[in-house]
Design goal:
The protein has three domains: 124 residues, Alpha-Beta Plaits; 91 residues, no CATH class; 163 residues, no CATH class. The chain is built from 17 helices and twelve strands. Strands 9-10-6-11-12 form a five-stranded antiparallel sheet. About 2% of the residues have low confidence. It is an alpha+beta fold.
Length: 451
């Protein structure tokens, strides 16, 4: 399928998705909005008596604006003399940061209240947006193909692709508002590791291809072992998750050892070994921090140096083919001023180095999903199925699947997304796989479903 045809057919398919819409429990949203507003008032009342607020009002003439980053930075760093943990990315004039990560690293009840207040304010705004955009119990977000430089989709009214999930509390509150139609299950079919696989189609790194083509291998487990100095049997679900999202993916997307080390270190206190190495804690796994201390990593600086060595091995021993491709790919872009994706789309203009590396991967990964969505939507309509596509999130097709059609629809999804697409695009030299998770009650309650 040529680029212009993919976009044309994709626009028509996404128009059907918008027409279908997502069922919303509006009554639930309204009740949650009241609860969250009450929580915001409680936080504000607790903060009003603090010394920090008194100082704030004294400086800014009785005006307290928790959303003003300039005022907050001035109070924290100039008046309270708190040592900054992060700085803004302005190379010429970096300033102490008050972003979410920077504030989370400050041990202060006042700062914690600021973060909590902002979180609940964002949650309240999200609920309000859902209520306002829902008509007759159906929410119809817009899905566009003409705004992102990566040639991926975007979403608005509301941004369906940016609903909270990483914060368990917010994810639970918001996603419980999304419910299936009567007789259906709500959930999604998700391409498993699609961006890693597409990157391998570009760089063809032998080690990466070996990981992808052998299901028994596990890159994220192996990197958890290296980052946290563990044996295979000691890698827990949490340590694997952190290695995946705080080292492997950041490294692939252009990060470096220092921010990776900081993120990994911040997670250490919350984690334990999967099995017990030391006898004095027989009732539970050994805390990861104690394990690292036993192995000689007692301070953050020691841990950062360790991660620096892990990064060096990652690129200069394990993934040398990937490393060399990135260097050559950027050189070609700098010479031409553009690059072409495997799907035929051309990205041109001024881009950062990380964008040049990531855009061709992100774009093609989404085009795989879009191609599959087009084919699946056509099949559902042709066979007059009651199941329908109700949304998409880059590597995930969100659906209401009618109970009696469940098995047939999931099998067809796998056929289209994993097999038919490789016949369409022969450059897909890696095996593709999908995961499905659905629930008869709400989007929050989805559980893995075997296809």
């Amino acid at each position: 399928m040529q680029p212009n045809e993919l976009m044309l057919r994709g626009t028509l398919a996404l128009a059907d998705v918008e027409k279908n819409g997502i069922r919303i429990d509006v009554h639930y949203c309204t009740n949650q909005q009241k609860i969250v507003n009450k929580k915001i008032l409680e936080i504000e009342n607790e903060m009003n008596g603090s010394k920090e607020i008194k100082l704030w009002k004294k400086i800014y003439k009785d005006k307290f604006n928790a959303n003003s980053d300039t005022q907050l930075a001035n109070i924290l760093y100039n008046y309270l003399k708190i040592k900054p943990t992060r700085f803004t990315k302005n190379e010429n004039n970096p300033k102490p940061s008050v972003d979410k990560i920077a504030l989370a690293n400050i041990n202060s009840p006042f700062v914690h209240s600021i973060l909590e207040g902002r979180k609940y304010k964002g949650l309240c705004d999200n609920l309000k947006g859902i209520i306002e955009e829902t008509v007759d119990g159906i929410l119809r977000p817009s899905f566009d193909l003409n705004t992102a430089r990566t040639f991926r989709s975007s979403s608005s009214n509301i941004n369906f692709q940016n609903q909270p999930i990483r914060d368990p509390e917010m994810g639970k509150i918001i996603r419980r508002a999304f419910i299936p139609r009567p007789g259906s299950w709500i959930g999604g079919i998700d391409y498993e590791g699609i961006e890693v696989k597409i990157s391998a189609v570009y760089h063809k790194d032998r080690t990466m291809l070996k990981y992808i083509k052998h299901p028994e291998s596990d890159l994220h487990r192996d990197m958890a072992m290296e980052c946290y100095m563990l044996e295979s049997r000691e890698v827990s679900k949490d340590t694997r998750y952190c290695a995946k999202n705080q080292f492997v993916f950041p490294q692939f997307y252009g990060s470096w050892y220092e921010p990776c080390a900081q993120s990994l270190w911040d997670s250490i206190d919350k984690m334990k070994l999967e099995t017990k190495r030391y006898d004095f804690r027989m009732d539970c796994g050994v805390p990861l921090k104690i394990n690292l201390q036993k192995l000689g990593i007692k301070t953050y600086k020691q841990f950062e140096n360790h991660i620096k060595n892990v990064e060096d091995r990652f690129w200069n021993e394990k993934f040398t083919g990937y490393r060399d491709w990135k260097i050559e790919w950027v050189k070609k872009y700098e010479k031409k001023g553009y690059f072409d994706m495997l799907t035929g789309f051309r990205c041109k203009g001024v881009m950062k180095r990380n964008d040049v590396i990531n855009y061709p991967v992100q774009g093609v990964a989404f085009h795989c999903l879009l191609w599959s969505l087009i084919k699946l939507n056509r099949w559902l309509k042709k066979n007059k199925m009651r199941s329908m596509i109700i949304g998409q999130i880059h590597d995930d097709i969100t659906m209401d699947i009618f109970e009696t059609e469940f098995e047939d629809v999931l099998k067809k999804c796998e056929q289209i997304m994993c097999k038919d697409i490789r016949k369409e695009w022969e450059w897909l030299i890696v095996p593709l796989s999908v995961e499905a998770a659905f629930s008869p009650t709400s989007w929050h309650d989805v559980k893995e479903v075997k296809i």
